[in-house]
Amino acid sequence: MTPVPRPPRPSAFSNALTFGWRAVLKFRHVPEQLFDLVMTPIMFTLLFTFVFGGALAGSTGDYLQFLLPGILVQTVIFNSVYSGMGLSTDLGKGLFDRFRSLPIWPLAPFAGLMVGDILRHLIAGLIILGIGLVLGCRPPAGLPGVIGAFVLLLAIGFGTGWAFLVLGLLIRTPMTVMTLGFTVLFPLVFASNIMVQPDTMPGWLRAFVDRNPVSHMTTAMRDLMAGTASAGTILLALALPVAMTLVLAPVVLWLYRRER
Asked: Could you give the CA distance from residue 28 to residue 153 in angstroms, rounded to a whole number?
């Protein structure tokens, strides 16, 4: 009897696409998960624009031009926490035990999580941009500047997401992942130039803000949307996301394999 040849093993790319489609289906079947991701940045945008805009910039319109790029960065960084929460939830349900038994590329489940993250970042970012346009924000660089800013934004989200995947693998309680993640992120986000210029801050705080990677990301976003970005500014904004990807992606794979 002639043995039946085994079908070819799916490629890593097709594995990643399959798990990416799983992430898309999550949005389709559980649309309410987007509520928290979208409502918080909307409230920050509206509250800071209309409550503090006049005091900080002289007018709400001028402040919105300054604030919007920073709110986009803040939204993506905060949304990255949900990477670790989703991974922790899947681990708690035993889904990754099943994934380990399949003949797939080991990083395919994480590729799916990243696809979900990029979709969240893109949806939330477009909503915030839409609100900004309705309120009167007009990026001086026009559509090319907005597209460049969003490419940078997705790269920031992709890079920072790895840190929370590590947390999701180490901590099996989603709420603990969220609490720890926001505890680390709040000082970084609010001690930055997202809300205000650091000129009036105390010297020690200004020194921290000027060196804060979140400030570099926000400055690059503002420059791209204004049409004044330089290669150095963009590279400085990408330094941390690229470093986190190079360092933490292998750590994620090692932690995942250690669970076997």
From this structure: 24
pLDDT of the chain along its 260 residues, tens only? Answer: 455 555 555 666 677 777 777 777 766 666 666 676 677 778 888 888 888 777 776 778 888 889 999 999 998 998 888 888 878 887 877 777 777 777 777 777 777 777 778 888 888 899 889 988 988 888 998 899 999 999 999 999 999 989 998 998 888 788 888 889 889 999 999 999 998 888 888 889 999 999 999 999 999 999 999 999 999 999 999 999 999 999 998 898 888 777 65
Confidence (pTM): 0.86
The DSSP 8-state label assigned to residue 51 in this structure reads I
Distances (CA, A) of 147 to 26, 141, 227: 26, 10, 11
Q: What is the 3-state secondary structure (H, E, C) of 208-240?
A: HHHHCHHHHHHHHHHHHHHCCCCHHHHHHHHHH
Q: How far apart are CA 75 and CA 42, in angstroms?
A: 9
Work out the burial of residue 23: count CB atoms within 10 Å of its CB; fewer than 13 is exposed, 13-18 middle, 19 or more buried: buried
- Cβ atoms 88, 177 nearer than 8 A: yes
For residue 126, the one-letter residue type is L
Cβ atoms of 139 and 225 closer than 8 Å: yes
Other Cβ atoms closer than 10 A to 139: 21
